[in-house]
Amino acid sequence: MIYDLLAPFYDKFNGDINYSEWADFIEKIIERHYGVGKPDLVLDLGCGTGSMTIELARRGYDMTGIDYSPEMLDIARERTNDLGLSDKMLWLCQDMREFELYGTVDAAVCCLDGINHLTSNKDLDKTLSLVHNYLIPDGLFIFDINGKYKFENIYGDESYVMESSDAMCVWQNYYNKNTKCCDFYITLFKESRDGRYERYDEIQRERMYTLRMIKSALSRNSLEFIGAYSNFEFDAGSDDSERLYIVARCKKEN
Asked: Are residues 18 and 133 part of one domain?
């Protein structure tokens, strides 16, 4: 799996992301929409190397991070140990479409377009159903998606290159407006111990969801849509937004 190979370089390739500012925004959402008090237990779906999980743990939340890549989680554990935050963390190597927890959580997050990796309504519903199952009544689900604008105007049929001192990642995009899916043909060149570069190839896929499609999926799974924002300033989001930050509330029958 390409994310296992990318794990040591993932944070370098995403070095422009300000996780602290993003976590501050999540806390503002919680202040606006959580209700009385503050969540104790928070789930991070598709946590990767734990950057957001750690930022939220620093703010006092007890975190559970779920990711499908063992190598990503190994790095997350190492970072947690180095920061002395192990008592605030639980790491689980699971698929977000089939995850199991030991109990309920007060809130859940899924950052960096993890939801776009669910490329069918069936997979989206399976994930949202599990989120609903493990959230407490009125618990919040906070997630982001790459929007319609990004798929059609930024992903499109473009190619991109990311480099670090000992690796280079190249991908070519092919977006199909009929299926609403974008295929990423990824090539990773990774330096080996003898100085030679090894090549790895893989195809990844993301699906474009319009805001209407997301609202419908949330409703099907008893998650009440609260709002969609285009930035950390709470400006209203739409299908013309590059990224959408979405908030939903878990509704359960008494």
From this structure: yes
Range of the domain at 237: 2-146+208-250
- Is 60 in the same domain as 155? no
Write down the pLDDT at residue 191: 80
If asked whether residues 201 and 213 sit together in one domain, one would say no
**DSSP letters of 169-213?**
EEEEEEEETTTTEEEEEEEEEEE-TTSPEEEEEEEEEEE---HHH
DSSP at 218? H
Segment holding 5, helix H or strand E: helix 2-6
Which stretch of DSSP H or E encloses residue 25?
helix 19-33
- Order of strands across the sheet that contains 105-110: 89-93, 62-67, 41-45, 105-110, 135-146, 243-250, 223-229
Asked whether the predicted pLDDT for residue 164 surpasses 80, the reply is no
User: In this structure, what token pair is assigned to residue 151?
Assistant: 């798929």
Residues 138-161 have pLDDT tens digits of 999 999 999 999 999 988 787 878
**What's residue 158's pLDDT?**
79
